[in-house]
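Revision sheet: structure tokens.
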Amino acid sequence: MPTDTFRQLDPAAALFHSLSDPTRLGIVKRMADGEVRVGDLSGELGLAQSTVSAHVACLRECGLVEGRAQGRSVYYSLSRPELMDMLAQAEVLLAATGNAVSLCPNYGIGSAGASIQTKENAR
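Predicted:
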């Protein structure tokens, strides 16, 4: 594949990378139910507020999440409803493949890639 073709895929790779972290994916799925504050997410996910805040910032910088200030609080929500359509299609694909991706030697459960993701979540 020519280099130009790979460069055209960079935005898609960045999108999927932004969703590759289980915590960020959980945040996105929670925001599908409506707007939420970082402090509330922290309690729901059982993670430090600074950790959740960093994940929300990543999603915001990718244009997937937006914030609405109300008093001293910021309520975050999905900026693009199409994101949930994409995740629904991902679930269809996972069901069709029998979740075979979980056996992937690079990113599946128990792989080195999954271990790296787990270590990143601990930060």
